[in-house]
UniProtKB/TrEMBL annotation:
<keyword id="KW-0812">Transmembrane</keyword>
<dbReference type="Pfam" id="PF07228">
    <property type="entry name" value="SpoIIE"/>
</dbReference>
<feature type="transmembrane region" description="Helical">
    <location>
        <begin position="61"/>
        <end position="86"/>
    </location>
</feature>
<protein>
    <submittedName>
        <fullName>PP2C family protein-serine/threonine phosphatase</fullName>
        <ecNumber>3.1.3.16</ecNumber>
    </submittedName>
</protein>
<dbReference type="GO" id="GO:0004722">
    <property type="term" value="F:protein serine/threonine phosphatase activity"/>
</dbReference>
<dbReference type="InterPro" id="IPR001932">
    <property type="entry name" value="PPM-type_phosphatase-like_dom"/>
</dbReference>
<dbReference type="InterPro" id="IPR052016">
    <property type="entry name" value="Bact_Sigma-Reg"/>
</dbReference>
<feature type="transmembrane region" description="Helical">
    <location>
        <begin position="28"/>
        <end position="49"/>
    </location>
</feature>
<feature type="domain" description="PPM-type phosphatase">
    <location>
        <begin position="150"/>
        <end position="362"/>
    </location>
</feature>
<feature type="transmembrane region" description="Helical">
    <location>
        <begin position="98"/>
        <end position="117"/>
    </location>
</feature>
<keyword id="KW-0472">Membrane</keyword>
<dbReference type="InterPro" id="IPR036457">
    <property type="entry name" value="PPM-type-like_dom_sf"/>
</dbReference>
<keyword id="KW-0378">Hydrolase</keyword>
<keyword id="KW-1133">Transmembrane helix</keyword>
């Protein structure tokens, strides 16, 4: 794209928001259909009051709550309340049970109106709001998809959120560089947990997913630190561990930002070694460098990257948590390495905190 010289007028064309108009048109058709349904029920109540109950008006109410946005839902609720009043006047007798049913339906309309008003800040209906949340969740999980690797490498990740929610503050981002020769992966723990940290995790995972594939390894964590500082969140910090692995030689670089130490299992001795690295938490201190810790994964070696939810519990030292995790991992090794990340994440760690685990094994 050629830059525009100074002083040259630029034509700005307004782009019609076709998707918004299409969405509004669809809602109007749905509203029209629900209005016809309510009118049909109202006619049925008037013609056959003993056969058609006026409580059938709850059907368009429920459908409107699921399919309509806040603005169109308000019009439908106003119509339904008027229809209820007309239906009540068409009843041959007024019994306490009839009056109670009428009061309950009007109360449901008021509740639906309150919910609609509360959703007005988002501006979309419940059905589309839920689909958006599912899409956001899938995007977080997609960031951690491990790319296709050579057959002599096994890399698995596991994520588990506090309370079993699909939204979590822990996530994994991964990519390959240099025509698939180098694997770049980061395990990140955003402050907070569960749904409270899910939105920040989504935004940060998108940024880190772009940075990890675009920057040299030594610049990734400093760039992520600068990004968090610019966001100025109330809980604007995160911990992370970044692995840059040469898939041909097994040489790697590890950098951490306030994160628990990675651990490596050496196939020859069967011993685990914690790899001590130092680096401040992301989002607190500007202009920080993160020094690498270099090593090599030989044939049969295993490297574990994890978040503090895997090893931390109240009133327990983190070293004891690491020892417990490694003890369970050693037991699981006896069966198979396939699926080990999921099995290990299911057995250890705090159920009240988000957990993320990445396993790297050189066959």
């Amino acid at each position: 794209m050629q830059p525009v010289p100074a002083g040259v007028p630029v034509e700005v064309r307004a782009v019609s928001p076709r998707r918004s108009i299409t969405s509004l048109g669809t809602e109007l058709w749905i509203l029209f259909g629900l209005v016809l349904l309510a009118v049909a029920i109202l006619l049925g109540v008037g013609m056959y009051p003993m056969q058609v109950p006026f409580t059938a008006l709850s059907v368009p109410l429920v459908l409107g709550a699921l399919l309509l946005g806040p603005r169109t839902m308000t019009w439908l609720l106003a119509l339904l309340i008027v229809a209820l009043l007309i239906a009540q006047m068409q009843q041959p007798t007024s019994t306490p049970r009839l009056i109670a049913a009428m009061a309950i339906l009007i109360l449901l309309c008021v509740i639906a109106l309150v919910i609609s008003v509360r959703r007005s800040t988002l501006g979309i209906g419940q059905r589309r709001g839920e689909s958006m949340l599912v899409d956001l969740r899938d995007r977080i999980l997609a960031q951690g998809t491990i790319p296709r690797l050579p057959d002599n490498w096994l890399v698995e990740s596991a994520l588990s959120s506090a309370g079993g929610s699909p939204f979590a503050g822990d996530f994994v981002v991964a990519t390959t560089r240099e025509d698939g020769r180098r694997l770049e992966v980061a395990v990140v723990d955003v402050s907070g947990k569960g749904e409270a940290a899910g939105t920040r995790a989504l935004q940060l995972s998108g940024a880190m997913g772009g940075l990890i594939g675009a920057l040299p390894p030594r610049h990734f964590l400093p760039a992520a630190n600068d990004y968090l500082l610019q966001r100025d969140w109330d809980e604007g910090f995160a911990t992370a561990v970044h692995l840059s692995l040469d898939l041909a030689t097994g040489d790697y670089e590890l950098r951490t930002a306030g994160h628990p130490p990675p651990v490596q299992r050496f196939a020859g001795s069967g011993r685990w070694l914690a790899i001590q690295t130092e680096g401040p938490v992301l989002g607190l201190i500007p202009s920080v460098d993160y020094e690498p810790r270099r090593g090599r994964l030989g044939s049969g070696d295993v490297l574990l990257l994890y978040t503090d939810g895997m090893v931390e519990e109240p009133r327990r030292d983190i070293e004891l948590g690491i020892d417990e995790m490694l003890g369970v991992a050693e037991q699981l090794f006896r069966n198979s390495l396939d699926g080990l990340a999921e099995r290990l994440a299911a057995k250890v760690g705090s159920r009240d905190d988000d957990r993320a685990l990445l396993l790297v094994h050189r066959r």
